[in-house]
Amino acid sequence: MSELLIFLGPPGAGKGTQAIKIASKFGFAHISTGDMLREHISNETSLGKVAKSVMDKGNLVSDELVIEMLVERLRNDDCKNGVILDGFPRTLPQAESLENIKNEFPVSKVFVFEVDEDELVQRILLRGQTSGRTDDTEGSIKVRFEIYMQDTEPLINFYHRQEKVTKINAVGDVDEIYQNIAEDLNKYL
Ligand code: B4P
Q1: Which ranges of 63-137 does DSSP label H, i.e. alpha helix?
Q2: Helix orientation angle between 33-42 and 46-56, rounded to the nearest 10 degrees
Q3: Of 51, 94, 153, 176, which is most buried, counting CB atoms within 10 Å of its CB?
Q4: Which whole number is the average pLDDT over 46-52?
Q5: 52 with 140: CB under 8 angstroms?
Q6: Which long-range contacts (CB under 8 A, 24 or more apart) does 68-76 make?
Q7: Residue 1, pLDDT above cutoff 90
Q8: Sequence-ordered list of residues with C-beta below 8 angstroms from that of 136, at least 6 positions apart, any chain
Q9: What does the pLDDT look like over 128-184, one tens digit per residue?
Q10: Rounded distance, CA 5 to CA 124, Å?
Q11: pLDDT tens-digit map of 95-111
């Protein structure tokens, strides 16, 4: 059995930034579905070809493809000590797919990253100047927010009902945010 931690929040909330630090401190695997999809795009796989135009517009890649990719990744040996899911689940069917494998991979905690929208837009536009990410544009950001509110935000209630949610103020110094998450996890582990 290998426990899952979920990092949930709007685009640009810093899930990836914090997941790298927390995974390295606690020896967990860091699984970012966004990074995995971008790797498929750069390797020009069949999944990558489908994902590119969807992601550039700010839309979500289909549940079926993302769930299959994620479940296969969880079988890797590096997931045995625990896993941080960064950017998954983003929809109710994705959350339900984790319910189906909960005997092997129970969700232990869900960290919800809270940042207001103006700050998020600034962060993503700033990242767009250097990242080369073709989805860090004003048009795509607008779509990504709408989809977050419609498809992903309801998951907070889904996990709240299971008493798994910890809210994180994700504005401010990166190291302070990291310390807050690490302290909370230390109490839990
Ligand atoms: P992701 O790769 O998950 O992208 P994200 O939500 O923009 O990033 P994140 O919140 O991790 O922010 P980051 O740390 O980088 O998804 C991209 C796309 O992939 C989606 O739109 C979708 O199309 C597809 N996709 C991914 N998962 C999917 C799924 N499950 N189902 C379907 N489709 C899926 O931080 C952002 C910026 O802020 C960085 O520049 C960072 O340096 C900066 N930052 C971080 N913390 C900060 C702080 N405290 N103060 C100031 N700046 C900070």
Answers
A1: 63-74, 92-100, 117-131
A2: 120
A3: 51
A4: 97
A5: no
A6: 69/33, 69/36, 69/37, 70/31, 70/33, 70/36, 70/94, 70/97, 71/97, 71/101, 73/31, 73/36, 74/2, 74/31, 74/101, 74/105, 76/29
A7: no
A8: 124, 125, 127, 128
A9: 999 999 999 999 999 999 999 999 999 999 999 999 999 999 999 999 999 999 999
A10: 24
A11: 999 999 999 999 999 99
Tokens of 177: 């945010």
Residues with CB under 6 A from ligand 1: 9, 11-17, 32-34, 37, 55, 58, 60-61, 66, 86-88, 90, 94, 123, 127, 135, 144, 172, 174, 177
CATH of the domain at 51: 3.40.50.300
For position 2, what pLDDT does the model report? Answer: 86
Distance (Å) from CA 84 to ligand 1 centroid: 14
Give me the number of domains the chain comprises: 1
Supply the range of the domain harboring residue 147.
3-188
Q: Can you tell me the distance from the alpha carbon of 48 to that of 51, in angstroms, rounded to the nearest whole number?
A: 5
Give the closest residue (by CA) to ligand 1 atom 45.
Answer: 14
Ligand 1 centre distance from Cα of residue 53 (Å):
17
Report the catalytic residues: 15, 90, 127, 133, 144
Q: How far is the CA of 17 from the centre of ligand 1 (A)?
A: 8
Sign of CA dihedral 7, 13, 18, 19: positive
